[in-house]
Amino acid sequence: MKRTSRDIRTANRYEVLRQIIAKSPVSRQELATATGLSLATVATLVGELLDLGMLTEVGFEDSAGGRPRGLLAVDASGGALIGVDIAETYVRVELFDLALNVLARAAEDMRPGESRPEQVVERVASAVEAVVARAGGGAARVLGVGVSVPGQVDRDTGIAEYAPNWDWHDVPLLDLLAERLPHPIHLDNPLRACTVAELWFGAARGRGDAVVVNLGTGVGAGLALGGGLHRGVSNSAGEWGHTTLVLNGRPCHCGNHGCVETYVGAPGIMLNLRESGPDSPLLRPGDQTATIEALARGAAAGDPVAVEVVRDTARYLGAGIAALVNLLNPEVVVLSSWVAAALGEPLLRDVRDAVARHALQRPLAATEIVLSPVPGDPVCLGAATFALEGALDAAGLRPVNGATAGRRSVPAEPLPAEPVTVRPVTVGSTPVEGRTAPLS
Amino acid sequence: MKRTSRDIRTANRYEVLRQIIAKSPVSRQELATATGLSLATVATLVGELLDLGMLTEVGFEDSAGGRPRGLLAVDASGGALIGVDIAETYVRVELFDLALNVLARAAEDMRPGESRPEQVVERVASAVEAVVARAGGGAARVLGVGVSVPGQVDRDTGIAEYAPNWDWHDVPLLDLLAERLPHPIHLDNPLRACTVAELWFGAARGRGDAVVVNLGTGVGAGLALGGGLHRGVSNSAGEWGHTTLVLNGRPCHCGNHGCVETYVGAPGIMLNLRESGPDSPLLRPGDQTATIEALARGAAAGDPVAVEVVRDTARYLGAGIAALVNLLNPEVVVLSSWVAAALGEPLLRDVRDAVARHALQRPLAATEIVLSPVPGDPVCLGAATFALEGALDAAGLRPVNGATAGRRSVPAEPLPAEPVTVRPVTVGSTPVEGRTAPLS
Ligand SMILES: [Zn+2]
Ligand SMILES: [Zn+2]
């Protein structure tokens, strides 16, 4: 869709808050420099965020001779955000403060055969209740719940259109969740959750164009272009796993042959291992997680089969990533999700080699390839970020205080903003370096 | 790079002029509706364009009871733009008015062995002089010359970094051209020129996300995302031709094997023909243009070899385009450039079938695949559009009148705007439908 001035206001609001979270405490002038926006625009956006109770003025910068400048920080207590990561084998839920520090966690296993929508919703609801109870007073104002569910998701209708591993078709997941949860709910998928987590808190923050290569059971390539998530015209951009890598290659559940996913997704890597070492003790039939972990330990210890499997996987991955580098000319490619986290540096090294062999020189020279620096579960963090974005989208309509924001709420009259607590903190003229790791 | 508020102002300026060219004559209110910008923003941008002498007020809309609203049109006489298409075998130059109507054309053949930079610059300079002479008074104010040259181009330094077919390396083409041409010069490559032509005047206009698949001797995929050209971090986005389509397939001049280009670029299609019909009379050894034209005539006449070659080519192309559809989820995919124009409807039909077999259902359902509707040489038109964008980029600094705009000019004081001629044209309340074909 075309960018409207409303889209641009929203994007600017995101960018300002992103920079405040990154660099807190920070002055309006520093924000203008960091975002490229005018000081007047920054002042307006900061005013909105102050009215929303999301920010607090933490003191004044010691300016030698000039007039004092107010420093801004996120008001961590301004509201809570919940991120839900529904995966094939577990449900993880985390409750965050507004600075995206984790206040409470809960997880539930999902056994095979317990993947009916009602069962999944039950697990989510009880885990959400658990984190709210654990967070105590910190959960007084839940601004929203972001929920990530695998597969194709229509975020506007809240329908999980297709989840291949569970054979879900057109499940009205948002409605089912809304019957159990009293908070505004934002539904999306893990690929976009990871990408948004990188954009707000990881390797894509402050970068113009980034590709987040998501390596899990499935495989995708989230696109963060021009500082925003590229969703495509029907919110399905990033389906990179079903790009043909090998003509007439391995069969894929999508109906095609030789898809990227069949070589570099966790089940594909298990196949690579089966081909390289059919009798390898690293192979744990039927258990992706255990196999990938065994492979990671083996590669670190120099086990020749493990080393070969990681290299083969990197070769397939590198050919695919080179095509992304050529096509999109990104500033950074981030390897994300649990398979990338497990295989770590050895995979990264081999991928860099393989991409260098396949990519054109000019885009290659402009691209950095890194492992995701986001600690913890990036899907929970990204899902919570969708809830944060939802609260920001509602801004300008009315304050988000009182947990009435989001698409599920009835229109409300603007509430008077709560008085802002000014904590008299003295900070030197050098801004305090922001945390890059938002999780505690 | 990140979007700054200056980028956004520039993008909005483009969008407003694009809509005025498309819908002229048009009211400010209609522009606000068409662009999603506020009426105040539209009024400011229109004011700038009026000051620049690019627009004219053509009369007032008959509004029943309301106050009369001024209608705007491009002032075609407000300046001339020149587009230069340097190709492997020819140089084409076209001179346009500000509404992008062609006022004059010139073309020069380039024989093999005449591709040294000095020789190419000589051809360009004489063709530019020829169109300026032919256009007579229309060329009084050339606002800029856009030049498209194949290969990798650094538009900021004006260096043709790599042109594989001529073995050019780091040619300072902009400097060489500037010695011969007294106008502001904007250098870029044919892929981006075609994409910008689709964005301003073709199938990508008014669409959110579009992919322009360029089928010539080389192959690329220009990306028009969010209403703007996606250039990537070092201006090389769109290098799709060197995506591996067939593992260990045909050798490519890039050093890899099985690149898309080796199957669907003109020389690749000649190979497809050689494989399907080694003795086919359609094959004109050493002559890409003649072979593709013979193939097009053969396919139209039902020649079985030609039909098979078009289908095979479409099969390769479809697999590649399906990957783009999955990854980017575009609203439209445009088949552009001379090979697509020659093979036309039969190619389009087979490509649609092949993409439908390979793409995922959700992005497929959201994507239309079309032949480029841009008549004439889209590279010349796109190159001239770069000159127009260059003139608009200079706006806000000073008026472009007087041919001093562009990166080659010295900073000048703002000139007083020329008085605007108001032609008293009466137009009904229904806006006149815009031309979709900007070329006369
Ligand atoms: Zn597949
Ligand atoms: Zn190649």
UniProtKB/TrEMBL annotation, chains A, B:
Region described as Disordered: spans on this chain: 405-440
Pfam families referenced in this protein's UniProt entry, alphabetically: HTH_24 (PF13412), ROK (PF00480)
SUPFAM superfamilies: Actin-like ATPase domain, Winged helix' DNA-binding domain
Gene3D superfamilies in UniProt: 3.30.420.40, Winged helix-like DNA-binding domain superfamily/Winged helix DNA-binding domain (1.10.10.10)
InterPro entries membership: ATPase_NBD (IPR043129), ROK (IPR000600), ROK_cs (IPR049874), WH-like_DNA-bd_sf (IPR036388), WH_DNA-bd_sf (IPR036390)
Family that this chain belongs to: Belongs to the ROK (NagC/XylR) family.
Protein known as: ROK family protein
